[in-house]
Amino acid sequence: MKTNWSNVIKDSLSQVGENLKLTQECQYLNQGFADAINRYKRETAHWYDEKGTKENPFSSVTQNLWYQHYLNKKRLNSRKIGIHYEYMRPTSFPKEENQRLPFFSYAHDGKHMLCTVKDSVSYKKVWYRNRQILWAEEPKNKEGHYYLMQSKSPAGGYICPNCANPGTLESLTDGCDYCGTKFHLEDFQEKVSCFYLPETPTQTKNRNPINYIVIPLFFFMMGLFIMNVLQARGISLLSGWIILIIGLLLIAAVMEIINLKNGASRTTVTKHKLRQSDPFFSEEYFVGNLTNKLASIHYAGHPEEVSPFALCDLSNYIEACRDVVECRLTSYLLKDFFTDERWQHLKVQTTLTLKRDIDQQIRAERRKLNLHLIRGKNLFTSASNSAIVYTCKGCGASISLLNGGKCQYCGKQLELQYYDWVILEYECK
Ligand SMILES: [Zn+2]
Ligand SMILES: [Zn+2]
Asked: In sequence order, which ranges of 263-378 are alpha helices (DSSP H)?
């Protein structure tokens, strides 16, 4: 792997710079996005309290996020489990005095304004069966991320979610002047595409506080020892310090190489490669979208329900997930990106936290999945048109995921790989 570091850094910096500028200019949109988050919270609580599984009662979410809630509820119903939110603190905007959060940042992917809202999250979520509590989760002031989107140009005007042609709200709901697609008024509202609650390292590893004392102490003692040896050999204190610093830098370099293989900088390099073919690639949108697809796969009652998301056979995996009642993505690594004549390939490693209903109890479990994703070579915008509806390439009708992605009118199967990332291979650890 040849990496031109100056390009990677330049690219990352210019991206950060552009987004900072957009973030500064777009603060006037905060209220709308905060309202959408609160609408989402209310709709989620309501969805799990209601008995049935009506078609989309959410006005605040993208199709993919709604679909995973839909499948989750079906799974819960089949296992006679209910979910209830005892409370869910709303996102308060305007910010309360002396509060850092919520923090709004913006990016644009060519068709949508993408908004990331970091907020401290507090709620109590209870899983129950026959009035008996199976599990309760109560994060308090944990930092979570909401990924949202809205079809808008960077300047704030309305654009067609399908072809990005600018228009007025009236003209677009009438049928885009350029591509003819008709939209509903709510297609232009702010939509939540994902809620991401990253697992903090302190939560995953039971870190012993002794580590914070022992490790620095060890290095300090080593330093003293080396200084002593050097002084005994008649080397001056100054060169002793220089040798010590060089030694520490070497350790840091080795750590960085390890990190490059498995850590955050690997993601940065992969993102740089991706942006060379897709300048608007949004990591947040991608992760949100992947989270929803993975959750849907874990909740699916039948392989057909998620057939648009994968080209490989998932039936064995789905069979082994019948007892999963919650699936959350808690960390990820973008491992590699490359293209061939037909496809773009992306390799991703994800860590999922699952809750399984085993022997009348809920058990938490972590699982690593290595995924190989592909999408058509000429697809650029990560958000494509999955936010709103998938349109049939055969007859132009809109396709719902509800009937396995098959067009109701002409029977053509939705080939999602020509719109969006789909799973080509997976490996479960
Ligand atoms: Zn259009
Ligand atoms: Zn059709």
From this structure: 264-277, 283-299, 315-320
CA distances from 1 to 4, 5, 294, 336 (A): 10, 12, 29, 10
Q: Ligand 1 center to residue 30 CA distance, Å?
A: 26
Q: Which ligand is in closest contact with the Cα of 179?
A: 1
For residue range 374-390, list pLDDT tens digits in order.
998 887 765 555 545 67
Residues 6+ apart with CB under 8 A from 260: 266, 269
Among 382, 389, 293, 302, residue whose Cα is nearest residue 344 = 382
Cα of 36 to ligand 1 centre, how many Å? 25
Check residue 258 and give its pLDDT. Answer: 67
In degrees and rounded to multiples of 5, residue 318 shows phi and psi of -60, -40
d(CA 134, CA 359): 11
Q: What is the pTM of this model?
A: 0.83
Q: Helices in 300-334 by DSSP H: which ranges?
A: 315-320
Between CA 123 and CA 142 the distance in angstroms is 10
How far apart (Å, rounded) are the C-alpha atoms in residues 177 and 175?
6
* Mean per-residue pLDDT of the chain: 86
Distance 131 CA to ligand 2 centre (A): 45
Q: Which ligand sits closest to the CA of 397?
A: 2
Which residues are CB-neighbours of 146 under 8 A, at least 6 positions away? 37, 40, 91, 116, 117, 119, 192, 194, 195, 196
Q: Is the dihedral of CA 292, 297, 302, 303 positive or negative?
A: positive
